[in-house]
C-alpha cells in the first residue's frame, strides 16, 4: 500500500512537471490559437458579432461628436474625449483603440437593456457590469438628492457631518429599488429628506422651511426620476 501511495505521488509530480514545462509554450501560442479559432468561427457566422460591432461603432461616434457647449445639456452618455484637456478626442487624428474601448465601457454603464442588445464579447461579464451600472446610478441619484437638499437647507446645516452622513444613509437605503420603482422611491426619499431638514433646522435653532419652500423641495426631489433632469445631467 505504501509503494502504491509513493507511485501515485510520483505520478502527480510528473504531471505537474510536464504542465510547467509546457506552460511557456502554451502561453506563447495561446493567443495565436485563439485568434485563429475565433476567425474560423467568424468566417462561418459573419453576423456573430453584430451587437459588438454596433457597440464599438457607437463608441467611436461618441468620441468624434463635438462636446456640447453647455454642461447642462442632457445626453445619454458623455464622451471620454470631452473630459480631456482641449477636447483631445475631437480632432483629425486617427481614433485610438484604447479610447474607443474606454468610451464603450462608459456606455455600458449607461446601457438601456430594453432598447439595446448587449455586446456578444462581454456576455460573461454582463452581471458584473450591470452591478457597476446600478452602483453608478445610485451614486448619481444620491449626489442629486444631496445637491437639492443643500440648496434648501443652507451651509450651516450641511456643515454638520453627522447630519450629512445620516442623510446619505437614509437616501442610499431608500434608493435600493430606484430602477424598478423610481416614482415611489423618490416620493419616499423626498418626504424623508424634507423631514430630516425640518428637524435639523429646528434642532439648530434655525428658521424652518416655509410651506412654499417645502413644496418646492419635494417637487425638485421627485423630478430627479426624470432622465432629462438638469441636476442629474450635471452630476
UniProtKB/TrEMBL annotation:
**What residue spans carry the Low complexity bias annotation?**
66-84
Q: What Gene Ontology cellular component terms go with this record?
A: acrosomal vesicle; sperm flagellum
> Superkingdom of the source?
Eukaryota
Q: Which GO BP terms sit in this record?
A: protein kinase A signaling; regulation of sperm capacitation
Start and end residues of each stretch annotated as Disordered: 63-84
Q: Which family does it belong to?
A: Belongs to the TCP11 family.
Protein name listed in UniProt: Uncharacterized protein
Look up and give the organism this protein is from: Macaca fascicularis (Crab-eating macaque)
